[in-house]
Amino acid sequence: MPQETEQAAPKGGGSRGRVSVRALLLLGAVALVLYGADQLTKHLIVTTLHDGDLVPVLGQVLQLHFVTNSGAAFSLATGFTWILSIVAVGVVVVIIWFAGRIRSLGWACVFGLVLGGAAGNLTDRLFREPGFGVGHVVDFIQVWGFPAIFNIADSGIVAAMGLFIILSLRGIGLDGRKAVYVRRARSADDADVVPEKAPSGAQRTARKTAPRSAQETAENTAQKPTPKD
Question: Is 154 known to be catalytic?
């Protein structure tokens, strides 16, 4: 018989208001490590290379190519630096405000990567040339076959998107609980009705010739004439 599924309500609903210290610490640590690595590598590139310099690391497979970018990640939306700066500020504020609700370590990594990446590129837009809020982001990683040049912050954001997809496919929520589905049997009212088969020719003939009830048989017997002596 067909069955339906429904999502089971998570237990321990009273713990939703609690703040996970481990998740907060992990989120902050991931964000700080990514931010520090991004700013350090950018500082090394700016102080050792000139704009446009190309340094092979693994031949043509991986090269350091120093360029500045006025757009978003992977040189997208160039010319909208102010708008991108405002969006980045909004992302940082929302993550910080939302961080207290995260209790999953996996989701803490996701938001930590996004926070560190957004903060790294936002720092460039706020404090690099040509001016506050319209600064150009430093990009320097060039991979063979990839159409754009990017940086450590961009890599962190892409890694966050990949982890986001994995957690979503596994059904893991922000509270760390995995969605559980239980099977519920269909009620009698919803049960499938099996259609009655049409009687065969022999069955129809038997129904016509057979008496319908004991009362009808008795009436037929009473109506027969009694033979006279």
Answer: yes
